[in-house]
Amino acid sequence: MIGFPIALVVANGFEWYAHKHLLHGTPRKGQPRYSPAPTNMKSHWAHHKIVRTSAYGDDGYREGLKNWRVSNEVKSLLALTAVTSLVAPVAPFFTLGTYYAAGRYFYVHRRSHLDPEWGKKTIPWHYDHHMNSNQDANWCVTRPWFDYLMGTRVISSDDLAESNPLGITLPAFVEKRVNRLARRLLPNAFARLDENRREEAGNRRQGIDLPMPEVTAAA
User: What is the 3-state secondary structure (H, E, C) of the chain?
Assistant: First the structure.
């Protein structure tokens, strides 16, 4: 049974890594961004451009698999679960956890862009990913765990932000202890998070908005 929660943590870490390195690509001075999955990167930046110009919405999800970006996302998730299925005979609960994580990723991501108000309230870290001055941050979608661990959560405003680093509704007395413990265990990460918040506030005051890259499938 322990395999199920382990799968959720692994999935969140992979979500962070894949979003940062595969979907956004690595910036290169004087060259296009590099991604080992260039078609996925092209699809993702096309999604960014739509979301950025439609107040966080993306009606492509209403088209379902007829939309090439949605089809690409679903195929990628199915490919990942096909890989984790290989360990099902020895780690069945881990495999089930990856199925759940993939399904929840698609549900949460899709719903947030079809219902922007729900998205802002439920996964504000992903809203910030798209709508902040710098879109190369806030890599997690379902939960912000690895963004807190890696110091890459950039909070745009206190009234929008999640109230604890787990991104889960908790009783007040539990939440206070979680927040204190997180800052005690991850002082360097929280120092970066506090600096990220100040930098984002400064960019907003100055009207700074970093542009999106031009991305092609051959990048």
Answer: CCHHHHHHHHHHHHHHHHHHHHHCCEEECCEEEECCCHHHHHHHHHHHHHHHCCCCCCHHHHHHHHCHHHHHHHHHHHHHHHHHHHHCCCCHHHHHHHHHHHHHHHHHHHHHHHCHHHHHHHCHHHHHHHHCCCCCCCCCCCCCHHHHHHCCCCCCCCCCCCCCCCCCCCCHHHHHHHHHHHHHHCHHHHHHHHHHHHHHHHHHHHCCCCCCCCCCCCC
pLDDT in tens, 135-183: 999 999 999 999 999 999 999 999 999 999 999 999 999 999 999 999 9
Total Cβ atoms within 10 A of residue 88 = 14
Question: Are the CB atoms for 142 and 108 separated by under 8 Å?
Answer: yes
Pairwise CA distance, residues 45 & 186, whole Å: 32
- Two structure tokens written together for 182: 């997180």
Tokens 């322990």 correspond to what residue?
Answer: 2
With beta carbons less than 8 A apart as the criterion, state whether 132 and 154 touch: yes
Query: What is the Cα–Cα distance from 145 to 138, expressed in whole angstroms?
Result: 10
For the whole model, what pTM was predicted? 0.94
Per-residue model confidence (pLDDT) at position 216: 66
- By CB atoms closer than 10 A (0-12, 13-18, 19+), residue 171 is exposed
Kindly state the greatest CA–CA separation across the chain. Answer: 56
Domain ranges of the chain: 3-206
